[in-house]
Amino acid sequence: MGSMLRGIFSVGFGYSMLRVTTPILFAALGAVISERAGVVNIGLEGIMLISGVSGVLFSAWTGSAWLGLLGALLMSILFALFMGYFHIKLGTDIILAGIALNVIASGGTVFVLYVASGDRGISSSLASKVMPTISLPVISRIPVLGPIISGHNVLTYFALLAVIAVWYFMYKTPVGLRLRAVGESPDSAASVGISVDRMRFLALGISGLLAGFGGAHLSMGYVSWFSRDMTAGRGFIGLAASALGGVHPIGTAIASLFFGFADALSNYMQSLSIPSEFVQMIPYLATLLGLGIFARQQMAKSQKGRKQAKEVA
Q: Could you give phi then psi for residue 122, rounded to 5 degrees?
């Protein structure tokens, strides 16, 4: 037990926690954007898979990690808008559309990988590129904190900056105000001339962009290859982090760190003499715990609201 605690409070564990939090945080921020517009993006898991395989393929074909990232982001936005078209224009239930996208992505990415490279399930023959790591000049020399924060993949720093960018966009720009208005009351927003459909398409596009960053990190930052279903539920964990964080960028970032801690703990415990079945279920147990806390909070708010209503009456 003592050795486990020393491992958890080590510099290496802190570094690993930030690393594994990155794709979860991107997915969670994507969920915040779409949910604020009144659309639950269940397709985050599939979008991340599409982004992951696209990044590997484009980077291998072009010989550039940055062009691979660009291709991954374009594909993720395209499929997010494609799902939005079925929901917004054709009236398909967004949950069913998202589930369909996830199923298509699970098998479709394997098929595309096989057609493009002949690999079955893992891109072992492709010379895919990896996004660069960055050593922060001043922070890297700070004892303890420096080794934890510095030396990460560039996409990890993009994720941290994205928290600030999403917060500013949502609460400090006119477009963010319109987007939140659409999510809170689409009829009221439409009555003052705001295009509900346009705002929801925009939200899904941004949500797809953020999820694309997360998928690209898995195949071009976390590792240097793509394998079948490598997201391992991180899109759904992102949805849980968004709910637990109150659909707010800052709260969602904190919730993502909690799930990142659980993921890092799972990775660390694999080196110990602990049954692998127990180790592998830790991130999902953390997700259930987070959703339980969220449900408890919602019930408390509902009871408080009913109590205040009775007092007024």
A: -150, 140
